[in-house]
Design brief:
The complex is a heterodimer of chains A (205) and B (258). Chain A is mainly alpha-helical and 205 residues long. Chain A folds into two domains: 85 residues, RNA polymerase sigma factor, region 2, helix turn helix motif (Rna Polymerase Sigma Factor, Chain: A, Orthogonal Bundle); 89 residues, Arc Repressor Mutant, subunit A (Orthogonal Bundle), CATH 1.10.10. Chain A has eleven helices and two strands. Chain B is an alpha+beta fold. Chain B has eight helices and seven strands; from the N terminus they run H-H-H-H-H-H-E-H-E-E-E-E-E-E-H. Chain B has a seven-stranded antiparallel β-sheet, sandwiched between helices. The radius of gyration of chain B is 27 Å and the shape is elongated. Classes of the chains: A mainly alpha (205), B alpha+beta (258). The interface between A and B is large, with 62 and 52 residues.
Chain lengths: 205, 258
C-alpha cells in the first residue's frame, strides 16, 4: 500500500527547553506579578491537559503527576512565554516534554518510531474510491477501539488536531516538527483509522 | 497552504485534511467548495472525513479528569500556596533573594499580609460564586421577596441585615443561602442583573477582612467590597462594574434606614 520507514531513535532530551531566559532572580521577582495571569490562563486548560496526559501515559495517577509537574515547570518558565502567542500550544509542549522525560515516556521513545516522509506517504492514496470511505462511523465503539489501538505518535497528532483544535502551526510547535510533518502525520493517522475501521467492518459482516 | 485557486482532479489527502481542519484561506476554501459541488466522490470523502474527525473527538473525550484530581490540580494553582512553588527555585541566587526579601519585609510587612489575606478571600469568594453558577443546585431559599428571605436567616446568623425596598433597574433577588466565609457565618444572596448572576456575601464587619479590601477583577469576575458600621459586604459577578456598584450601594443604604 504505502511505504513505512521505520527506525529506532534514541531519546533526545529537548534542547534548552524550560530554561529561564532571565536570571533566576528575575524569574523569582516576576513570579508574583505573573502568577495571577498564569492561573487565569492555565485553569481553563486543566481538563484538556489531564485528558491529553492520560492519552500519553495511559494511566490516571501518572496523568495527574504529569499535569502537576507541567504546571510547576510552566509557572517557573512563564517569564519566557511570549504574550500574544498561543498559550495552549506552549503549555502542551511543556506537557509533552515532561512526558518524554518521565519513565514511561523514555520507554516509549526507545521503541520503534515512525519516520515521516511526506513525499512517500500519500502516493497509494491518490485515487481512493468513494466506497472506501463509506464506513460505519456512527459505530462509536468501533472508533473508540481503533483510537485505542492507533500508534501513539499518530494518535497524539490527531488528538491535538481533532480534540484540542490546535492549528497545524501550533501542533508543529508542540511536537517540535515541521508543519509538513504535521500534515503527513494527520493524513496517515486518519488513513490508518479508516483501515482499522474497514477491517473491523469486514470482520463483523 | 499552497494549493492553487483551481482544484483540478480529486482532492489530495493533504488538501482534504487542511479543508476539514480549517487550515485554508477563504479563497482556497471557496475553490474546494466549488469542486465539491460538482464532484460526488470528493463530497463523500469530505463528509466521511468530517464524521471521522467528530468521532475521534468523541472517542478521545472518554477519559475526562476525575473531579478530585481536578480539584487538586486547581488547588495547586491557587496563589495562597506560593511556598510550594517558591521552594523549587534554585538556591544559587539565595543572597539576592534574601536581600530582596528583607527589603520587602522591612518596607511593608503589613501590606503583604493584606495582599495575602485579600488573595485568599477573593479566591474563596470566587469559588463560592462559581459553585452557585455551576452546581445547578437551588439555593436554600428560593424567593424574590425580601420579607421571606430576611426572616429565614434569623437564628442562623449572629447578626442581622436589611434588604433594600427597591432594587436598581433590572436587578432582582433570586434566593439566598447560608454559607461560611473565612470560617465565619455569612449570608449569601443571589441576584441577577441583566441576566448576569451576582453573589452577594454579608458578614459581620469584624469577622473578615472585607471592610479593608480594594475592589478588583479576578479571572474575569468583578469582586467589589463595601462595609457599613456592622457589616462587611462583598459582591461577585461578571456584570459591568457600574451595575454591581449600584446594587452594593443600595445594600449599604438599606442598613441605615431613615
Amino acid at each position: 500500500m504505502f511505504h513505512i520507514h521505520r527506525r529506532v531513535v534514541d531519546f533526545i532530551p529537548p534542547p534548552g527547553f524550560l530554561t529561564c531566559s532571565h536570571s533566576e532572580a528575575l524569574c523569582t521577582m516576576s513570579f508574583a506579578a505573573s502568577s495571577a495571569t498564569f492561573e487565569q490562563l492555565a485553569v481553563p486548560l486543566l481538563p484538556s491537559l489531564y485528558s491529553h496526559a492520560f492519552w500519553l501515559s495511559r494511566d490516571h495517577a501518572e496523568a495527574e503527576d504529569l499535569v502537576q509537574e507541567t504546571l510547576t515547570k510552566s509557572l517557573r518558565a512563564f517569564g519566557s512565554f511570549e504574550a500574544g502567542t498561543n498559550f495552549k500550544a506552549w503549555i502542551f509542549r511543556i506537557l509533552r516534554n515532561t512526558f518524554l522525560t518521565s519513565r514511561t515516556g523514555i520507554a516509549s521513545a526507545r521503541t520503534v518510531f515512525l519516520e515521516d516522509h511526506p513525499d512517500l506517504l500519500d502516493i497509494a492514496d491518490a485515487s481512493p474510491t468513494p466506497e472506501d470511505h463509506i464506513l460505519r462511523l456512527d459505530n462509536q465503539a468501533a472508533v473508540n477501539e481503533a483510537l485505542d489501538r492507533l500508534q501513539p505518535a499518530l494518535r497524539e497528532v490527531l488528538l491535538l488536531c481533532d480534540v484540542e483544535a490546535l492549528k497545524y502551526k501550533d501542533i508543529a510547535l508542540v511536537l517540535d516538527v515541521p508543519i509538513g510533518t504535521v500534515m503527513s502525520r494527520i493524513s496517515r493517522a486518519r488513513r490508518t483509522l479508516y483501515q482499522m475501521l474497514q477491517s473491523q467492518l469486514g470482520e463483523s459482516l | 497552504m499552497t494549493q492553487t485557486m483551481q482544484v483540478t482532479g480529486h482532492l489530495a489527502p493533504d488538501q482534504l485534511n487542511a479543508f476539514i481542519d480549517g487550515e485554508l484561506s477563504s479563497s482556497e476554501s471557496r475553490a474546494i467548495q466549488r469542486h465539491l459541488a460538482d464532484c460526488h466522490s470528493c463530497a463523500l470523502r469530505v463528509l466521511s472525513a468530517t464524521q471521522l474527525k467528530a468521532a475521534t473527538a468523541r472517542a478521545a473525550r472518554r477519559y475526562a479528569v476525575p473531579p478530585d484530581a481536578l480539584a487538586r490540580l486547581t488547588a495547586q494553582l491557587r496563589p495562597q500556596e506560593p511556598k510550594k512553588t517558591a521552594r523549587s527555585y534554585s538556591f544559587r541566587s539565595i543572597g539576592w533573594v534574601a536581600l530582596a526579601a528583607s527589603l520587602v519585609i522591612a518596607v511593608s510587612l503589613i501590606g503583604w499580609r493584606q495582599i495575602r489575606q485579600a488573595n485568599a478571600l477573593s479566591a474563596e469568594l470566587l469559588d463560592q460564586h462559581l459553585a452557585t453558577l455551576s452546581s445547578g443546585a437551588s439555593p436554600e431559599v428560593i424567593s424574590t421577596d425580601r420579607h421571606t428571605v430576611k426572616p429565614w436567616f434569623q437564628g442562623k446568623l449572629p447578626f442581622s441585615f436589611n434588604l433594600p425596598e427597591v432594587l436598581p433597574a433590572d436587578t432582582s433577588l433570586k434566593g439566598a443561602d447560608f454559607t461560611y466565609l473565612s470560617g465565619q457565618p455569612a449570608a449569601l444572596l443571589l441576584f441577577t442583573i441583566h441576566k448576569h448572576e451576582v453573589s452577594v456575601f454579608l458578614t459581620q464587619r469584624s469577622a473578615t477582612a472585607i471592610a479593608t479590601m480594594p475592589s478588583h477583577v479576578r479571572s474575569g469576575f468583578n469582586i467589589y467590597y463595601a462595609s457599613t458600621h456592622d457589616l462587611g459586604i462583598a459582591a461577585v459577578s461578571d456584570v459591568n462594574p457600574a451595575d454591581l456598584k449600584l446594587l452594593l450601594s443600595a445594600l449599604v443604604q438599606a442598613q441605615s434606614p431613615g
